[in-house]
Amino acid sequence: MAATSFTLAGMYLKNRVLAASGTYGYGDECLDVADVTRLGGIVTKSLSLKPRAGNPPVRIAETAGGMLNSIGLANIGAHRFITEKLPFLRTVDTAVVVNIAASTVDEYCEVLSILDGEDGIDGFEINVSCPNVREGGLSFGTSCPAVAEITRRLRPLTRRPLIIKLTPNVTHISEFARAVEAEGADAVSVINTLIGMAVNVRTRAPVLSTVTGGLSGPAIKPVALAKVYETARAVRIPVIGIGGIASANDALEFLIAGASAVQVGTANFIDPAAGITIAAGINRYCDENGIEDVGELVGSLNVGAGVSVVDSWL
Amino acid sequence: MAATSFTLAGMYLKNRVLAASGTYGYGDECLDVADVTRLGGIVTKSLSLKPRAGNPPVRIAETAGGMLNSIGLANIGAHRFITEKLPFLRTVDTAVVVNIAASTVDEYCEVLSILDGEDGIDGFEINVSCPNVREGGLSFGTSCPAVAEITRRLRPLTRRPLIIKLTPNVTHISEFARAVEAEGADAVSVINTLIGMAVNVRTRAPVLSTVTGGLSGPAIKPVALAKVYETARAVRIPVIGIGGIASANDALEFLIAGASAVQVGTANFIDPAAGITIAAGINRYCDENGIEDVGELVGSLNVGAGVSVVDSWL
Amino acid sequence: MRIETCPVTGVRRAGDGIFVLGITSPGIASTIRPGQFINVRVEPGNDPLLRRPFSVYRIDGSTVEIIFNVVGRGTAALSHKRGGDILDVLGPLGVPFGIAAPDYETAILIGGGLGVAPLPILTDALRPGVRAILTFIGARNAKQIVRDHLADPRIATDDGSAGFHGTVVQLAEETLSRNMPRRPKIFACGPTPMLRAVAAFAVRLDVPCEVSLEGPMGCGIGICQGCPVELAGEEKRYALMCKDGPVFDSRIIRI
Amino acid sequence: MRIETCPVTGVRRAGDGIFVLGITSPGIASTIRPGQFINVRVEPGNDPLLRRPFSVYRIDGSTVEIIFNVVGRGTAALSHKRGGDILDVLGPLGVPFGIAAPDYETAILIGGGLGVAPLPILTDALRPGVRAILTFIGARNAKQIVRDHLADPRIATDDGSAGFHGTVVQLAEETLSRNMPRRPKIFACGPTPMLRAVAAFAVRLDVPCEVSLEGPMGCGIGICQGCPVELAGEEKRYALMCKDGPVFDSRIIRI
Ligand SMILES: Cc1cc2nc3c(=O)[nH]c(=O)nc-3n(C[C@H](O)[C@H](O)[C@H](O)COP(=O)(O)OP(=O)(O)OC[C@H]3O[C@@H](n4cnc5c(N)ncnc54)[C@H](O)[C@@H]3O)c2cc1C
Ligand SMILES: Cc1cc2nc3c(=O)[nH]c(=O)nc-3n(C[C@H](O)[C@H](O)[C@H](O)COP(=O)(O)OP(=O)(O)OC[C@H]3O[C@@H](n4cnc5c(N)ncnc54)[C@H](O)[C@@H]3O)c2cc1C
Ligand SMILES: Cc1cc2nc3c(=O)[nH]c(=O)nc-3n(C[C@H](O)[C@H](O)[C@H](O)COP(=O)(O)O)c2cc1C
Ligand SMILES: Cc1cc2nc3c(=O)[nH]c(=O)nc-3n(C[C@H](O)[C@H](O)[C@H](O)COP(=O)(O)O)c2cc1C
Ligand code: FES
Ligand code: FES
After folding, report:
1. pLDDT at B304 over 90
2. Quick check: helix, strand or coil at residue D184?
């Protein structure tokens, strides 16, 4: 039986599989069907300062091997989270990572400060795929200086692990990873959703009320894997791999490509116990392959000598 | 029966569905199973100055709803194309768009000049998703100045339609579209493949010999559609929509989102007559909906008044 | 709520483009309540990716039946299932109809199209408790009327090919406005426009009314926030169709 | 080459994890030649997305049979097909074995694992023409040996559970080096390492040799460039497995 527990950016995790933000509520919805204590951790829905109602319907659309969402970060806000959700989460024996979203850098700081006063929180994940009101709604996440600034401002406010969750909708995600590493981030989560869209040809209107939305699910796994590989080679801080993970095999691809841990998102909608099954499958793989610690897999990709990535003309 | 023929950037097309570069050979492979004269046009495999052997195996990997490829632009080169393929293509009653790839701006120019001397070519599509040897193999396509320079240098060399095929692996594809529009491009093709990756967990090696490859197929359709929508709103020149189109419904989504025409790629591998079926399906849709000219659909997306794209917090 | 892998007992046609699919699920059969739904994984792979929500139509021992229209990929695939196939089913899910007496004496059931789906088990559950059940069902045409297992339904068709010529709401309102039973309560299920109309006349006639909504769902269990239902009242607030519904008091939501 | 939608005649087990699937296709049945393959669309949807290539195993009237190992999603799905299901099939594809006499008198057939797949129709096609057929087949163990429809095959198993204890190549080389028939030609099909070994001893014994390769394919018809086979010689050049093969003269390629 391979060793599974480890410390990620100073945070103890019993295994390398977490539930991704926005795909597991606040960890209290799936108890009938999933023993959440067998997850490495739970990342909460993004919390903003005030509660957010979210976007009008339609918020989701199925696509080939994936789905689009434009939830609009509907959430109960930091204060209600503390009073209504955190007490329960404190009783659950798994790591709790609180994900934070905001529309100004100050709001990020305020939300984090409010939450940092509470115990029962193992780490913070910062969702930078949010519209920056100062920039007319352009996402923070696609501006390297903005992402760096958020990290710089947040870093001194907490001694807990600070994880920056990067968006894939940029040319070189490794630049962003390097920037936040330089600002003292403890880890990066890669990736958030890809920008996508669907049209209803009957009505000739967008399917989503917001026209575009975030693409997730198995369809994006190859893109996520490439982004994780690019990021893991660029920084020393751990990379948390996210994107289309639905099986142990998928998770193993991410670990081998350089992810220290993974998050399972969309797969929870099909099976809320997906993360647990995946964690078990990773162990089975290790046992079958004589791997004594899952950590041995991380970044173990053997890239043939002769091969040059550059020569790959797409 | 709706009118289907139209002129795209000065190029007469009998309908709005073309076969995408690299997914239909040189148009002479599928004759037994597809009446290519019922396609709006054929875009050739990318041609370079010298023949290219391409990348070593493994060159393709199937993914959820898509596939990865790293063909390495294996092609017979401009000269053999002219002697071995063009004579046949001249006899085929459909538009022939020649796609050009190169590793220096000079090579782009040389290939185009060589081909521009030939008749039987209706237009040129420039594949900028190629490694720029000057930049240590970084893709031209992700550098806006490089893409602009290619366009600037090529524009004076031909009076035929000049179509720049953009890569989606950038933060704001519309910037690139605007840049090439300013340099005199007649149209843009959107999108080429997304960078993706797959790992063989048994061998712990990349599946593709080049580690990363290009993701295509239904999985990427939502991303392609969003890129086409972004591009079509940013430029006045026509946009050719590409990415995961496998049905008439898919193609209609692109037209409605702003594409003047579409290209079918990966779907040809499953059915070389896919483009023909799609063109017929578009006509059926028009007839059923009292649309007299397919052109009426282009950019007909009705975005509800109340909706603000900005407010979509992914 | 639990996930079960259930053998398919069979699929039969019940109208044009309408099918009834049965699965063996002691768990769901014994716990499901009228108006609750199950979320069905159509195929083991990625196509389609998401589960498909369906009301429970009938319970017979440990057999659970759903009735559905073929409208897309998922329902088409379900219509091709055969006895012995295995389906992965999540349920029971959602808030059932509020049938607990004594806040009403006569139950008025209104079903439009396959909105009839939850009415048979609702009828069975109501029978012991209430004084009377009035059932109104409507469809586009006679071929789409599914009248089995209901308390002698009055029928409306848009094309007049069976029963009343018009919508089921017109039929119900006409009938009820002539003579309204004592202490009535409306239970309605069907397409959104129909429910909007029902809710409107429930207000006009001041009758308590519960509606069962339908719309796209991501998870069916409250973790994706993908199924917003706008709440009545000043500030924009949403309930979740899957968790706070699919059955709602028609007055607390904006249909 | 054409696309046909073919009814499945049935699927039967032919060893552990090995299945034979039959389809009705007059077109393919009448035109296929030994060593050619068909490209099968496993499901109508996107999962799996690409076709799966298979050698033709048997022809019986208008019935075309393939034999396959369940190794992944596509072959698993195929093993669950039932009579009456419809399969979309593209074929015949590729270059067949070069069996035209008289450049040889004895055909030596070597099949490793399911590399036996093309050998039965190859045997049928050879019988009229050649003086003798020597068949060698090998597998991991007895359970994986498929010996039907072959000219009394000599058998090798890695674990010795049937016939010669060792690889089919060792068996063939041993037998042939003792007494080599007059004007022989080798036709081999199986895993790449085995074909490499066959090619090597064909050179040693100076026997003409054709090998049927297998590997990932995107399209099967030469339009994706996804199936390179490295050619022998100085400069790096590739042939296409689907179009220039899958059968190659072992001396012109680098296996
Ligand atoms: C609580 C609830 C109960 C339902 N009960 C029934 C029933 O008893 N009988 C019945 O025929 N239908 C019922 N529906 C609708 C049914 O879920 C859809 O018809 C079905 O999901 C369509 O799937 P598809 O793949 O065939 O269509 P597609 O259009 O291919 O589906 C694409 C996506 O859109 C979603 N979708 C499309 N139409 C609907 C819709 N009307 N409602 C919800 N999601 C939709 C699908 O779930 C899927 O995610 C119910 C829906 C809900 C929410
Ligand atoms: C010309 C030719 C003839 C073949 N004849 C037979 C036969 O008669 N019997 C038989 O059992 N197999 C045969 N194969 C191999 C067969 O095509 C693969 O086993 C099959 O495609 C695996 O599909 P899968 O979805 O089950 O496996 P997966 O691993 O899920 O497939 C994933 C992808 O890899 C490809 N792939 C995986 N393994 C192979 C392989 N060994 N060869 C080619 N592609 C592969 C698949 O086509 C698919 O694109 C042949 C292959 C070729 C090229
Ligand atoms: C419905 C939905 C809601 C999401 N909400 C959030 C969120 O609130 N904050 C966040 O950082 N990521 C959010 N995500 C992104 C996921 O956490 C994850 O990064 C992404 O979905 C890719 O992983 P997957 O393919 O496994 O789903 C959401 C994703 C989905 C599908
Ligand atoms: C196997 C393969 C080879 C390709 N070769 C080229 C090429 O040579 N030049 C080019 O511009 N695009 C090439 N493409 C990209 C396609 O033309 C198209 O832009 C992309 O595949 C997205 O469309 P699709 O999803 O319909 O395949 C190739 C794609 C595939 C799958
Ligand atoms: S469907 Fe996911 S929250 Fe309702
Ligand atoms: S498989 Fe496409 S060229 Fe051979």
Report:
1. no
2. strand
Q: Would you state the pLDDT for residue B136?
A: 73
Residue B82 predicted with pLDDT over 50: yes
Residue D44 contacts C where some CB pair is shorter than 8 Å: no
The mean pLDDT value for C199-215 works out to 94
Q: For chain A, which chains pass the contact test of at least 3 CB pairs under 8 Å? A: B, C, D
Of the listed ranges A21-30, B41-50, B128-137, the least confidently predicted one is: B128-137
Task: Give the integer Cα–Cα distance in Å for A102 and A140.
Answer: 10
Mean pLDDT of chain C: 94
Cα angle vertex C145, ends C142, C147, to 5°? 130
Q: What is the rounded CA–CA span in Å between residue D144 and residue D15?
A: 6
Task: Give the span between the Cα atoms of C33 and C29, in whole angstroms.
Answer: 9
Enter the pTM of the model: 0.97
Tell me: pLDDT of B146 over 60: yes
Query: What is the three-class DSSP state of B256?
Result: helix
Q: Which tokens in the block code for residue D8?
A: 């499945």
- What values do phi and psi take at C33, rounded to 5? -120, 150
User: Positive or negative CA dihedral for A164, A165, A169, A171?
Assistant: positive
A305 vs B12, more confident? B12
pLDDT at B311: 39
CA distance D248 to D239: 10
**How near does any CA of chain B get to the CA of A145, in Å?**
14
Per-residue pLDDT at A311: 40
Angle at B17 between CA B12 and CA B23, to 5 degrees: 115
Task: Write down the pLDDT at residue B156.
Answer: 98
DSSP conformational letter for C65: E
**Residues with Cβ within 8 Å of residue D200, at least 6 apart in sequence:** none
What is the 8-class DSSP label of residue B262? E
Q: Residues of C near A (CB-CB distance < 8 A)?
A: 1-3, 41, 46-51, 90, 215-230, 235-238, 243
- Asked if C137 and C165 touch (Cβ cutoff 8 Å), the reply is no
What span, in angstroms and rounded, lies between the C-alpha atoms of D22 and D83? 9
Find the C200 Cα to ligand 2 centroid distance in Å. Answer: 60
Strands D238-240 and B261-264, how do they pair?
unpaired
Q: Which residues of C fall within a CB distance of 8 Å from D45?
A: 47, 73
User: Is pLDDT of A231 > 70?
Assistant: yes
Give the separation between CA D74 and CA D83, rounded to whole angstroms.
18
CA pair distance A163, C43, nearest whole angstrom: 36
Neighbours of B90 (CB within 10 A): 12
Cα angle, residue B276 at apex, residues B274 and B281 outer, rounded to 5°: 95
For A226, C251, D47, D63, D82, the CA distances from D22, given in Å and listed in that order, are: 40, 60, 22, 6, 10
The DSSP secondary structure of B82-97, one letter per residue, reads IIIIHHHHHHSSSEEE
Q: What are phi and psi of A206, to 5 degrees?
A: -60, 145
- Judged against a pLDDT cut of 80, whether residue D107 lies above it is answered with yes
Residue B114 has pLDDT above 70, yes or no: yes
For residue C216, report the distance from its CA to the centre of ligand 1, in Å.
Answer: 6
- Whether B110 and B77 have beta carbons less than 8 Å apart is answered as no
